[in-house]
Amino acid sequence: MTTAREVMHHGCECLRMNENLTAAARRMAELDVGAMPVCGEDGRLKGIITDRDIVVKAIARGRNPSEVQAGDLIHGEVWSVDANSDVEDVLHQMAEHHIRRLPVMEREELVGIISQADLAAKLPQDKVGELVEAISGTPH
């Protein structure tokens, strides 16, 4: 059995809810990532924003990224998986909810994130192909 912990990207950093999008984009660039989790003052996961969110939901709408907070882009339910979950559960959640990144939790603490690239590097090609097919073309 392969677990979420075995395929996740470790060392995940959180953006703060009140961090502006200019700072968020700068951190994404520094870390060379396309998405980052957003956590509240309590350190709990509130959502994920992507570089695409910053462009489509802020810049393309004429909003000044230095005046928009990361928390302003958080909407809907946050899906996550336990670090000890089987990778089949990971694939199921990502396909069912049409998401490309899945936070990994341990005792209600964010310990990592799983992306399609993480899965592509560590799983058989047929499994990855099924996942990509299941979520492709979705706006998430």
| Total count of strands | 7
> Which structural class is indicated by helix and strand composition?
alpha/beta
Helix content: 25-40%
Q: Detail the poorly predicted runs.
A: none
Radius of gyration: 15 Å
Q: How many alpha or pi helices?
A: 6
What spatial order of strands do you see in the largest sheet? 1-7-6-5
Strand content: 15-25%
Biggest sheet features: 4 strands, mixed
Q: What does the overall shape look like?
A: globular
Order of helices and strands: HEEHEEHEHEEHH
- How far is it from the N-terminal to the C-terminal residue, by CA? 28 Å
Summarize the helices and strands and which ones pair or pack:
Elements (H helix, E strand, L loop, with lengths): L3 H4 L1 E2 L4 E2 L4 H11 L3 E5 L5 E6 H7 L23 E2 L4 H11 L3 E6 L2 E7 H7 L2 H11 L5
Helix pairs in contact: 4-6
